[in-house]
């Protein structure tokens, strides 16, 4: 019996019982497909989070006022009013500073914004033009805050796309419209492009106004809520952190760094925290994938065990008619390989399609990991082939009459 | 007719052990069957005749005793060697037909020839020839579930004949079919026997046994008598 004949015989028996073959293939499809879909969902989420962090700007140090510490009670960071526009100016002009590229003083506050009929609660940030460069903000329509807006303390605002949707509705040209904030009327001069993100991290739910307007007319404060400092490169981040730190200590007449009334956060610290969070997330997803691989594998094992054990009589008959063990085992092995490969390929396609649909529905990135495909395929195919081969071997070792009597 | 024996069994016993309860199916059975004989084995149900047939067909192994099949001691043969003997020398007709389900009559008959490595064209030719012989030339492409019991039995006979075996073993070949069809099948057996095939057949019908040249009676796992049948039934033409 040559191999081509064996292959044809195997295909013949598989097409004979379409229900049985279909169920076996379905078991394998689900086993492989679910693993691929779950793993790519996890990876898409992880990548999305990393991209969002990077969209905040690169090589960034954030200087924030230190926490208020009174009578041993430590308040929220940023609560103290210690940073001024002069501090920011000193960082950008001081000759002690050599590793800093841009300095962006900022003051922010959550405020209610109203238009004629709508209102929303959002983040208002007073900025200078360099903010856009430092934080990777791009303009979709209109203009960003300009130096003349700062100098003239003009009442203008640049809106994030989420704010536009909240106040004016989707796809509405809001340039030239008016918004009211803290009793002041501001004219919309620009809309930023979407950066994505959601909830706490939403980079689209922000209103930018000139720093001078914010300080003098809206918030009535001379202090800053943060100073963003962009280092010249990733390598000099630590140097920049030190330079800025010592400059501010001396400007605030402090000698001991432990008494600092400000804190400097390195963006790398944030990234590290986030990646350790997403690492946990990945571990969770790997766990889910492993469980679904196990469940899928057990499903495949069951269907193969049942379908092949069900055919013990057939194996007995084939032996009675003169089939040698090797021929029987090869036939069942061939059938298992055809089943698992067919199911495997369909499963991969189904998994990829499922990931694509999920990524579209959730608006996340579409990623398919070749590793997860390979792992799912190898494990499922291995289980399928093993549990197709094992009962066939067991049956072919029986005396033909025992196999024929098998119920 | 003094040819060498094709079957020679001596002191064959078969004991089944189920949950430590021993059931004796065959006890110290000995006989030999020469080439060209037509033997009917008779006995009530539970007498051990099917067990004997399975041992003769090398489908099962005896608990003790010696079985020499065509000059070879079965005990010394490997599973694969036995498979080859079953394929080349023995045609087995099962009481329950044992056809592949949902498969055409033609495909069922070609199955032993596939394992013998006979080329496809020849397989088809021979399968058609034997299906015509058993009167199923118009049913070749019917699947087994589209055939009546008698037709399935005849497919099983065609399959047993397809390798042109020297020994034909039939377990109740007429057990599940109408008497007219039973006569037809017996006519086929008689013709094959005349051509030189050795036939061993189990039956519980005395009428059918009368077609054989020798009748062995078996009861409770033992041979009770072994007689040659001088008044072999006439074939109706």
Task: Write up this protein.
The complex is a heterodimer of chains A (407) and B (237). In chain A, helix 1 crosses helix 11, helix 2 packs antiparallel against helix 9 and helix 10 crosses helix 12. With 407 residues, chain A is α+β, with helices and mostly antiparallel strands. The longest helix of chain A is centred in the last third of the chain and has 44 residues. Chain A folds into 2 domains: 182 residues, no CATH class; 180 residues, no CATH class. In chain A, 56% of the residues lie in helices and 17% in strands. Chain A has 13 helices and 12 strands. Chain A has a 6-stranded mixed beta barrel. A two-stranded antiparallel sheet of chain A has the order 2-3. Chain B has a single domain, classed as Rossmann fold. With 237 residues, chain B is α/β, with parallel strands linked by helices. Chain B has 7 helices and 10 strands. The two termini of chain B are 26 Å apart. The interface between A and B is medium-sized, with 25 and 28 residues. Chain B: One of its GO terms (cellular component) is plasma membrane. Chain B: This is Macrolide ABC transporter ATP-binding protein. Chain B: InterPro entries: AAA+_ATPase, ABC_transporter-like_ATP-bd, ABC_transporter-like_CS, ABC_transpr_LolD-like, MacB-like_ATP-bd, P-loop_NTPase. Chain B: Keywords: ATP-binding, Nucleotide-binding, Transport. Chain B: One of its GO terms (molecular function) is ATP hydrolysis activity.
